[in-house]
Specification:
This protein is mainly beta. The chain contains 3 helices and 12 strands; from the N terminus they run αβββββββααβββββ. Strands 1, 2, 3, 4, 5, 6, 7, 8, 9, 10, 11 and 12 form a 12-stranded antiparallel sheet that branches.
């Protein structure tokens, strides 16, 4: 990816070289709603694990593989995601609220309107990062259009095929198929806790 912003190149290079491994366990969600009658409960999770993203070659873009460890704490509306190297060093910290998303790395802190905008600028593709907290539990994201159940252990939502076959042991596979207008993407999540 070519960029005029050196921090994007730096963060992308760090993400491309990062990797981690460990045992998987199913996340334990909690809800945080002060008045359940006034609004539905907000799903809040604390997760640790590995994220593997494979971007297929597309037009003039080369294929990419990104492996990194992560610590996630929060909800779909507000939270923090720490991205780690194999040795446990922090590569970047991503924070988000309803007001926007920020990434902090060795080049400083940078603002984006949404998590999707952040992933598109840093990785070259808009990824459904906020939806992952639902998908790792084997559930469709209620903020997206209704999902289509394809089998007992998978569903399709917003152009992604979500395989929930191994959710009970903390593993999720999500795939966006390639078309003539978009590159194919595979995301794999392996949870340690």
């Amino acid at each position: 990816m070519t960029s005029k912003r050196p921090w994007i190149t730096s963060l992308s290079a760090a993400l491309l070289s990062a990797c981690a491994s460990g045992p998987a366990r199913l996340p334990e969600p909690s809800t945080d709603a002060p008045d359940a009658a006034a609004s539905p409960p907000v799903l809040s999770l604390a997760l640790q694990g590995q994220l593997n993203i494979k971007l297929q070659a597309f037009q003039d873009q080369d294929a990419k593989g990104i492996n990194l460890g992560f610590f996630f704490n929060g909800t779909q509306n507000t939270g923090q995601l720490d991205l780690m190297t194999p040795m446990g060093s922090q590569v970047a910290q991503v924070r988000w609220t309803q007001a926007g998303a920020w990434v902090r790395d060795t080049q400083g802190e940078h603002y984006f309107a949404t998590l999707g905008d952040l992933s598109e600028q840093v990785l070259g593709e808009r990824l459904p990062l906020a939806s992952l907290m639902h998908w790792v539990r084997g559930l469709p994201d209620p903020a997206l259009p209704l999902a289509t159940q394809t089998t007992d252990q998978s569903f399709d939502q917003s152009g992604w095929h979500i395989d929930t076959q191994e959710v009970a042991i903390g593993r999720l596979n999500a795939q966006r198929p390639a078309t003539q207008h978009q590159r194919g993407i595979t995301m794999r999540v392996r949870l340690d806790r």
